[in-house]
Write a structure and sequence with these properties.
Length: 263
Amino acid sequence: MRYFRLIFTFMKAAFQNESAYRLNFVMNFLSAVLGLAGGLGGIYILYVNNEVLNGWTMPETLAVLGVYMLVQAVKNVVIGPSMNKLGGMDGEIESGTFDYTLLKPISTQYYISVREWSLWSILHIAVATGVILFAIDGMNSEITLLAAAQFLLALVISLGILYSVMLILSSVAFWYRGTYLLWIMEDILQAGRYPIGIYPRPLRLVLTWVLPVGFIVSVPAEALVQKAEPLMLAAGAVLMIILFTIATLFFNRSLHKYSSASS
């Protein structure tokens, strides 16, 4: 329970801080609108002369865009802001202020994962949810209870994989001080704006099994539009567990590297 109370404490502190900068609300709103406009423009170009593209209709592709925006929004609400403080030339590791983080009487991994919140980014979650609901309405098909359950499961798997990859990238800063690699995840996720199925087969394989964009964005969207295969959900769950284990071990090993570097 103490760990859950900490989340509310961090959120309260973020609210008090961001309330003093209300311009951030306007900027996040404009960012959400511009992001949506860009995504819709890309989908329009894809379907201006096609009703179906590699088995995907426009409403189904819109659902993929909604899931992409939702995953990005959750990342930008807490995971990104929390881990951004580690790397970079002005990060905690380079400046040495990470010593204070190590003194916290809680799990270091937990603390660096939930300590910073960008509450105005919740606007992006609302916009993404609206896109998903609009896409569902356009599909003219009822979302079954099974599809909804599969979507929620796939979304948990997606966020677990995303978190694990970001933790691995953030941990590199312990080995190479001043390094900031989270931008890599941002660039990779751009490929998830559209269904993996519309790409050539070699690229689909890369985006699924090498760069897990497929599991992060496309598989949850496939579950939503009732195209998901149970085998892919199972594979995603296994991949999440493996990546989370690797990320945790690598982060803990990296902490020892930091200790030796600062001693």
